[in-house]
Write a structure and sequence with these properties.
By secondary structure, this protein is α+β, with helices and mostly antiparallel strands. Helix content is 34%, strand content 18%.
Length: 170
């Protein structure tokens, strides 16, 4: 699980274009944003996504409940970082009420360990780099749709030997 913010201001990346013509990417001078919680299912490659205006403990607890509802009968091992909104009474309450939800917390400053980071990277490349959307709600809808309708393959389980240790789950 991880979080990402989406701004209307386009981020740029290299693209092919006609020789001798400068490509133009419009920039929004504002800083309006929306945020997303995303949880990658490492076995299926599907993402459970929630859009929020503010990342805080209440929004995190709501996303945890969304994950629990999405997987109603399964134990869940959730990998997440040390973001400040991952702590608080709301989080403790959700964890206490749902013993099938277990956490593994990443070491400080280790986004390379989080497979959800690659989902954000791929989605930004597909949707928000070099975009020309004039309205944030339209861009956010495309971002969320891409997350919900794309299968993201991760080598995380193989890289860390999960499929060797737990072959019955593959």
């Amino acid at each position: 699980m991880d979080e990402a913010s989406l701004y209307l201001q386009a981020t740029t990346m290299a693209v092919w274009g006609p020789r001798g013509q400068s490509l133009v990417v419009r920039l929004d001078p504002g800083r309006s944003k929306t945020s997303f919680y995303g949880t990658l299912d490492l076995k299926t490659g599907r993402v459970v996504v929630s859009q929020v205006e503010t990342m805080n403990a209440a929004a995190t607890a709501a996303h945890l409940r969304t994950i629990l509802a999405h997987y109603p009968d399964q134990p869940i091992l959730l990998l997440w970082d040390r973001a400040p909104w991952h702590r608080g009474a709301e989080i403790r309450e959700v964890l206490r009420a749902n013993q099938r939800l277990k956490l593994v917390v990443f070491p400080t400053a280790s986004p390379d360990l989080n497979p959800q980071e690659q989902v954000w990277k791929a989605t930004r490349r597909a949707v928000s780099h070099n975009h020309a959307r004039p309205r944030l709600p339209d861009l956010a809808a495309r971002f969320k749709a891409h997350l919900a309708n794309t299968t993201f393959h991760s080598s995380f389980l193989d890289r860390y030997g999960w499929n060797l240790v737990c072959p019955r789950f593959t």
